[in-house]
Design brief:
The protein is mostly helical. The chain has 2 domains: about 30 residues; about 100 residues, Substrate Binding Domain Of Dnak, Chain:A, Domain 2, CATH 1.20.1270. Helices cover about 90% and strands about 0% of the residues. This is DUF4398 domain-containing protein.
Length: about 130
């Protein structure tokens, strides 16, 4: 009787191991290809917005994180690749936003200077009359 209990226990353990392996396979995440693509787009978008000039630190960090993500992906470290890709995308978005902010601030300063010149001209025209 003890032999049949031992056999039953071995079958039960093997079945449990099979179930655990099956569940682990189902629970794994897909490769972070979408995250890598998003990160690449964010870096390109930032570069297109002149982040090299207006947000060079953030853009350099984004490029560094993207390189780390690509390296991790090539090495099969998908979780590291996913984390680095998400960081690269966030930094790329930050560089894009800071660059657009700097451009907008420069445009506002230019408009204010134009307004000041126009006010001076109008003031001079009023004094002549």
């Amino acid at each position: 009787m003890s032999a049949s209990i031992a056999q039953f226990r071995a079958i039960l353990q093997a079945s449990a191991l099979g179930i655990v392996l099956a569940l682990t396979a189902c629970a794994s995440l897909p490769p972070p290809t979408a995250e890598l693509a998003d990160a690449q787009r964010a870096v390109v978008r930032a570069a297109d917005a002149d982040a090299d000039q207006y947000a060079p630190d953030e853009l350099a960090q984004a490029r560094g994180q993207l390189a780390q993500a690509q390296s991790a992906m090539a090495a099969g470290r998908e979780q590291d690749a996913r984390s680095a890709a998400l960081a690269a995308a966030a930094l790329g978005d930050l560089a894009h936003a800071r660059s657009r902010e700097a451009v907008a601030n420069a445009q506002v300063a230019q408009r204010r200077a134009q307004i000041s010149r126009l006010r001076e001209q109008l003031g001079m025209a009023e004094n002549r009359e």
